[in-house]
Each structure stands twice: as C-alpha cells, then as structure tokens.
TrEMBL record:
Lineage: Eukaryota, Fungi, Dikarya, Ascomycota, Saccharomycotina
Domain named NAD-dependent epimerase/dehydratase: residues: 7-216
Pfam annotation, one family: Epimerase
GO terms of molecular function: aldehyde dehydrogenase (NAD+) activity
Secretion signal span: none
Organism this protein belongs to: Scheffersomyces stipitis (strain ATCC 58785 / CBS 6054 / NBRC 10063 / NRRL Y-11545) (Yeast)
Transmembrane segments: none
Name of this protein: NAD-dependent epimerase/dehydratase domain-containing protein
InterPro entries cross-referenced by the UniProt entry: Epimerase_deHydtase, NAD(P)-bd_dom_sf, NAD(P)-dependent_oxidoreduct
Family matches, as PANTHER family: NAD-DEPENDENT EPIMERASE_DEHYDRATASE DOMAIN-CONTAINING PROTEIN, PROTEIN YEEZ
GO cellular component: cytoplasm
Length: 321
C-alpha cells in the first residue's frame, strides 16, 4: 500500500490551482483534482494528477476523500457559495464519519481593505474599506476560523499574481496593449497614482502552498500558531509598474491615472485599486519559505510572456525588440 500523502485541490485546472498541483506532485504527493468535464479530466491526467469528476455546485465529490483517504483539501474556487458548500460538506464528513481533514482556503490580500498604513495578519479587516467584489471573503474567512476546532484550517492570502498568462495583468496592461495596436497616443486608466500593493509570482505561491500542506501533514503541525498568512514577494507602486511595462510594449504616449473607480464604473478595478502594505514575514518564519522571483527585476520578461499568452502572433514582433 502506498504511503504517499494525498491532497485534493478544488480548482486544480485554474491558473493558481494547477501550478500548486504541479508543485505538490513534484514533491511526490498523490494529487487529486476536481474536474468539471472529461476534457478537464484529461488535462489533469496528462500531468500525473488524478481527476475526480464533479461540479462546484454539488460537493458530493468530497465523499471521495474518505474513499481515497485524502486528509487535506485546498479550495481555489474564489466564490462564496462554493466555499460555503465545501465547508458544510466537510463538517458533515468530519462529524458523521469521524474522518480527519485539513482545509486550506486561498483568499487574497485585498481582504485587508484599502489603507495607507502597514497591516498584518492579526489586523481585523475593516469591511467598509474592502472592495465590493471581495467583500464576501471577510465573512467567509470568519466562518472558516469559527470551524477550526472541527476542521483545522489555514487561510492563504496571495498578493496580485504575476507570471505566465496572469489574467489579472489585463487590468494593468490591457488598455496599453490595445493602444499600441491601434496606434493611439493616450491611455486612461482609472487607478490612483499612489496605488501600492503586494505582488507574488505564481510559482512562489505554489511553493508556499506545498510547504503549508507539508507542515499540516507533519507531526510539527502544532507550530502553525496563526491560521492566516499574507503571501507576497514585494510591495510596489502599481502605476510605476504599468509605466515601465508600457515602455517595454513600445508605447510612447501618455498614461493618465484618473483615480479610484466606483463599483458601478468597473467592479474589478474598484477592488484592484486597493492600497495594501502587508508583510510576508509570518509565512517565511512559519514555513521556511522564501520567494525567489521578483517583479521589478523580471518585468521585461514577464510583460513579454503575458503578451504572447494574449496572442502568439505577438511573439515575432516582440522578439525583434
């Protein structure tokens, strides 16, 4: 019988979840992933990941954790109803079947809310300052923590993701790229010039998730004193990154930052425009983790990679620069 540790990822086919699944597999975990279709199941199977067919709307697939003796579940879904359903199902499994399971929820640093002051994991989010798109996470995190005696849990809050296709980069560079292609000389972006936030490369986040799972699975899990971890590599001024990236894209015009947008104007940008000055010290100390890929020194490569993911034809143009 295999003695390999097992883990189930809900969201294993997504941008964050798949990278985490690969990191766990590289470290000899048997990694199960929720697949919502046969095509997604094949996608997982090609990377030595074990698909479990199911849907986020009906968490009956979680019965498989008992069948396969999977004692860690990681939720990457990012929707309030799916996570609430997962928690309810896990609570039922734990209480009715006396089955031990650990839970890791992937949240985000925006849950801190907008502030010019430094914040830590110990600070309670100020709900009025949290972006409308992610406001639900405040109550969801509280729910997770309220169940910690039944379901031992960790909440991981990544900064703004970068690396590879990083869809969130469309917020920063989508309009710039469109202007370059159209030959426009002006770009207007509804963000504040003073916007500052933490960033993290997807692979560094994946490594942190692996270390968290490993610690949870070990006899040393008691050293996890705090259940919440902010995960960033650095804190930077966002407009400065946009301007530098625009130069890499060949944009020679003017970029105007017009201030904080309302939810009605742009729901995603309203949350994106959240000042967060947090630290990665707790994650580093608890898990022995150290981010390796930094945004500023890799910006040119990262922007080019993101652009090629938007359209492979851009590779020829960029490779001549």
């Amino acid at each position: 019988m295999s003695t390999q540790n097992k883990v189930l990822l809900v969201g294993a086919t997504g941008y964050i979840g798949h990278q985490a699944a690969l990191a766990l597999r590289r470290n000899n975990y048997l990694v199960y992933g929720l697949a919502r279709s046969e095509a997604k199941a094949v996608f997982l199977a090609k990377d030595e990941l074990i698909p479990i067919i199911g849907t986020g709307e009906k968490p009956d697939y979680l019965d498989e954790i008992v069948t396969h003796e999977i004692h860690t579940v990681i939720d990457f879904t990012g929707t309030p109803t799916s996570t609430a359903d997962i928690l309810e199902k896990l609570q039922s499994i734990v209480t009715e079947k006396k089955f031990k399971v650990n839970f890791i929820y992937i949240s985000g640093i925006w849950v801190h809310g907008d502030s010019s002051e430094k914040v830590t994991e110990a600070d309670k989010p100020v709900i009025e300052k949290v972006g409308s798109l992610v406001k639900y996470r405040v109550a969801l995190e509280e729910k997770i923590l309220s169940l910690k005696d039944i379901i031992p849990s960790i909440i991981i809050r990544p900064g703004i993701l970068f690396g590879g296709k990083a869809d969130i980069w469309g917020v920063m560079f989508g309009q710039v790229l469109g202007s370059v292609l159209a030959g426009d000389s002006t770009v207007t972006i509804p963000l504040r010039e003073e916007l500052t936030s933490g960033f993290i490369h997807n692979e560094d986040l994946a490594q942190l998730i692996f270390l968290a799972v490993e610690k949870f699975d070990s006899a040393n899990s008691a050293v996890i004193k705090s259940p919440i971890f902010d995960v960033i590599s650095e804190t930077v001024n966002v407009p400065s990154i946009i301007v530098a990236g625009a130069d890499e894209l060949g944009f020679k015009g003017t970029i105007n930052f017009t201030g904080h947008p309302t939810f009605e104007e742009n729901p995603l940008l309203e949350s994106f425009d959240t000042n967060v000055r947090c630290s990665n010290e707790l994650a580093k100390k608890t898990f022995g983790w150290e981010p390796k890929i930094h945004l500023a020194e890799n910006l040119a490569l990262l922007v080019r990679t993101w652009v090629v993911h938007q359209n492979e034809d851009f590779y020829t143009t960029l490779s001549k620069k």
